[in-house]
Amino acid sequence: MLRRRLEVEAVIQERWRGPTARRARDFKDALGIGKSLRVRQAEVTALSKTANTATILLGGSSMAGVPYSGNLPVPGYGCWVITDGEDMFIFANHHTAPGDSIKLNRDADQTIGDITEEKISFSDPADNTTNLPQNNAYDYYGAWQSAQPTRLYLPAPGMWTLTAQVEWAGDVDGRRILTIWNANDAVVAKAVTPSQGAAIVVPQTAITQVRATDVSTGGNEYFRINVWHNANNNLVVNGAGIQYSPIFIAVWEGPPGGETIFNS
After folding, report:
1. pTM above 0.70, yes or no
2. Which domains does the chain show, CATH number per domain?
């Protein structure tokens, strides 16, 4: 009986030292079983959408390359920092949710040549990114880039509603065309309006919905506004002193199919 018991124990010990036991121990380590977690608060200061990481301000020190869990965090807002002493990630208090939006504008007139299609160049929204979205322009996600001021980069995957709006100065001749283009140089929305008379301004709006996938920094999910006219002379798109022209708005409607988007 004793001999049989010793044989059974030897088999058990051998199996524990084998691949099954190693997998069990690896699984335990991956889950953090037996480790203590520490939770602190910090502020998100910047994002690297290419690497799915954030820069945070923790205890007065800036830390870059911290992975985030959940949807895209918003710089300027707080987050929870979770670490076991070796690995670290953050979960943002404020992140991308349906209804989150971006609004670009141009705070000066832009002159458009006759029979010449031109891109609208937007102003730096940083001057207006304070408090609430009713401000003239707001961009919490880095959708506008100074090197490409005609583009609006979508910062999160999913379904987006795009709205472009301009106001043309009055002129008696020709048509006015407003288009939204994607990164593949395809028109995704278009509005055509005839002249309304020499003294009457012409407002135009184009709206569409798009699905974003490649949202890395400098990726291919960007859009722009183009305008064209044939008024037989230069014509101005009004921008100085008004808040509704030209503007480009992107509203995140949510992930396709209603699922939740998590970073791995």
Report:
1. no
2. 38-92 (2.40.50.230), 101-255 (2.60.120.40)
